[in-house]
What does this fold into?
Amino acid sequence: MQLIIVNDERTARQFLDVHVELNKNVPGWIRPLDKDINSVFDPEKNKAFRHGECIRWILKDDKGRLAGRIAAFVNKKYKTKGDECLVGGVGFFDCIDQQEAANLLFDTARQWLQERGMGAMDGPINFGERNNWWGLLTEGFHEPLYCMNFNPPYYIRLFEEYGFQLFFNQICYGMKVSDQLQPKFFSRHAAIKADPAFRAVHIRKNELPRFAEAFSIVYNKAWAQHMGGKEMAKGQALVLFKQMKPLLDEKIAWFVYYNEDPIAIWLNLPDLNQYIKHMNGRFGLLQKLKFLWLKQTGYCKKMVGIIFGIIPEFQGKGVDAYMIVEGAKLIQGGKSNYEEYEMQWIGDFNPRMQNVAESLGAVPSRRLVTYRYLFDRTAPYKRHPILG
It folds into this structure.
């Protein structure tokens, strides 16, 4: 076995090739766009480099064939409440079905992280935001959502036999778009709708700055406290919305206002992977034209729940039901093209959001796992704390 550091264009290409070679015959696999993987490791595109560093390796067998890969990273902003040591990360793991090969990859990453003062490693995770490339697939081995990890089932054994332990489960929930909402939604919706101070509106592409600002306000009030106090600036939100603009479907992205103040978001997008599976990892001019044609013909029948949240002072008052019912008026009943709905993962440390998903009538569609490995094997192990 030979480990090679990724440090030039050739090895960076091989880093991509490992994933393709080991997964191309796995049912359900969709090849990610090369640019989406490369951008994670580009200091000009990934802001995590401002407060972190990363390294990649590829693994070749004795005959020079690609046999695995792994990335390791240190991110000063990455922390979980209650951590008793600094925690690094590993991700973008692929490996042949051989524990010895997996152990070599994990050992190499662990040593690199220990040299930088880390006391544990979480994986497989992303060098950056949690909405992409986070967790090991353990249930639901069907077509992944956009920028979601996908792996053969034997990867579970490679992680757990090495000594990784469950840190938290990541549950996705799915349902048919045509599924009828439960009666309680309509009664709670009626109570909020009777108050003229509340207003639900869907996004409008010609007013992106206004909605981006509203998004940043709700995000900072509803999530920043759970993300290490990391707030989203208005400009950052606008960049995000401009990136999403080609994919945005106005009818499936909703906001609620109270006296003109934004208080809730329900952001859904068409599942980009339904287009990407026809691109073979590329997104050049021909692929962009193909994407536009597929989009205009209504090819995508699946929508994905990206984010759902309400600022704390309005939680538990029926705003969720109000927003969902208002959105359903345009999404259900043949008024949209979508047949399936799946939500991006919800951590099992967030029972409140799990209850929202289950109240919709959605059921678990897949499970991913974030594992943790403590370098001190005698230290007491703790799972991710439950959010209050």
The mean pLDDT is 93. The two ends are 47 Å apart (CA to CA). The domain at 2-168+369-374 is CATH 3.40.630.30 (Aminopeptidase).
